[in-house]
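Field notebook, page 316. I keep forgetting to write these up properly, so this time I am using the form the group agreed on. The chain and the ligand, 2-amino-3-ketobutyric acid, are recorded exactly as supplied. Prediction of the bound pose follows.
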Amino acid sequence: MSILVTGATGQIGSELVGALRQRYGADHVIASARRPGNLPAPFELLDVTDRSTVEKVVSQYKVRVIYHLAAVLSATGEQDPQRAWNVNVGSLLNVLEVARNHGVHQVFFPSSIAVFGPNVPRDRTPQEACLNPTTMYGVTKVTGELLCDYYTRKYGVDVRGLRYPGIISSETPPGGGTTDYAVEIFYAAVEKGTYTCFLREDTRLPMMYMPDCLRAAIELLEAPNSRLRYRVYNITAMSFTPGEIAAEIRKHIPGLRVEYKPDFRQAIADSWPRSIDDSPARDDWGWKAEYNLPQMVQDMLARLRGRQAKLLSTPS
Ligand code: AKB
């Protein structure tokens, strides 16, 4: 039995592969991506918008679980909405079709807080708030959630997903998201001591540190089906503004200077929840985040500084 990870060289994928290999054994987890990365084998080059190549890899490795992470994020999606639709919806449909025809039992789908639009309560946005996104990324994620539900009911594929908030990670930077500032600020703080933020200082958004993000996906897929009232769950760990994360980083790097120059991503952030109610995830499958803002900042800085020190001590 094998597990396939698509988008394995991306922000979440690159770390999820390691976590899954540790849990289920390295040979059982097939990493795949459109371009070669530096992930150890088994690795397959895979364009998920091409159904036949998904079919080939799934058959070759007798894949039974797919973590489908390949996607275009919100900011990139607003710049090329057609591509966002083709990649996000087209590839999910390919994965679900291959799943139902080739004996895949479970599929994981990363949804997003972007499924919500400006017409819902923006604080502690509930699980069942209506889904009226104003971005193409959000439209593709709502469509994805509906497809997850449809394939589960109609074909019996066990599709589960999480509405991820912004994810902060130290290994692979995100690309093309609206919450990317919360990763960029760490690199800028450690390397230059200054950062220009593309969101306003008071823009509050829900966020999560990578170890919680990985654990949530694994715990959701391992939860007994009978416990799940929803296919896709709200989850969160913390909410903060650019001003608040800068203040927390300054506790470790007092000289950090941050300028605020909001661009087109401000409108995207303004259409999203400020915080999320994840009580159904807590009640149904025991979800609980471990990292809050101070813990996350401390761990991120320790990791980035550790890497910097290693680079400086390596002879060129
Ligand atoms: C993005 O900013 O696009 C993503 C997300 C919140 O889904 N990080």
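OBSERVATIONS:
- The domain at 2-167+209-234 is CATH 3.40.50.720 (Rossmann fold).
- The pocket of 2-amino-3-ketobutyric acid is lined by residues 73-74, 112-114, 137, 164-166, 177-179 (CB under 6 Å).
FOLLOW-UP: compare against the apo run.
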